[in-house]
Design a protein that fits this description.
2 domains, elongated, 10 helices, mainly alpha, 65% helix, single chain, Retrotrans_gag_dom, 199 residues
Length: 199
């Protein structure tokens, strides 16, 4: 009898905790996803929902369940079908969800195109801030190249126009951080009159 009460209490507590976590997730106003108009929108949705689920400290299986809850229309139909392909004894983790979602909604070749776009990026006619925004946005597609702060700074600096990348004070001494480089480059651009520079 005591074991039955303990089991009932544990199930009730687990259900209550699940409801509380769902409420926490909903308070972040997670985006919904229904179909792909632009494959990059699907990838952006995946990143947005993951950031919100990390915020409320979801584990891998909770992330998958709550992300799936925010699928609608054809995306929800895809998920119902996709789940049947996963063995019953295999937990549906965030990694499983993410890989399945990307394979269905994000063209694999598109990620490589964006990675190459990042690797080919140069400041050109952009102001430093315009370039930096583009650099930071595209860097999400080149995670292997951005493993350390040092590599990120080196990549960023290499793509700047000559008058910025060869300036002695750029980024301070030693191995500057991304923030130090950004501050130095902004200052240099301001000294140059804030003009768009040309290669």
């Amino acid at each position: 009898m005591a074991n039955t009460k303990n089991l009932g209490a544990a199930l009730t507590q687990g259900a209550t905790q699940g409801q509380l976590k769902m409420a926490d997730v909903q308070h972040t106003h997670p985006p919904t996803f229904s179909f792909v108009a632009d494959p990059l929108d699907a990838d952006d949705w995946l990143r947005d929902i993951e950031a919100k689920l990390v915020l409320v400290c979801c584990d891998g299986t909770e992330k998958a369940a709550y992300a799936a809850y925010n699928l609608q229309g054809t995306a929800a139909a895809w998920w119902q079908s996709y789940k049947t392909l996963i063995p019953l004894d295999e937990p549906i983790t965030w990694t499983v969800f993410k890989e399945g979602f990307r394979s269905a909604h994000v063209l694999s070749g598109l990620m490589e195109i964006k990675r190459r776009e990042f690797l080919a990026l140069k400041q050109g006619n952009q102001t430093f801030l315009e370039f930096l925004n583009q650099f930071n946005y595209l860097s999400q597609y080149a995670t292997e190249e951005m493993l350390t702060e040092y590599r990120k700074v080196k990549l960023c600096r290499r793509r700047l126009n000559p008058e910025l990348k060869h300036y002695e004070d750029f980024g301070g001494q030693g191995s500057p951080s991304q923030r130090e480089c950004e501050g130095s480059a902004r200052g240099l651009q301001a000294q140059m009159g804030g003009k768009k520079s040309h290669q």
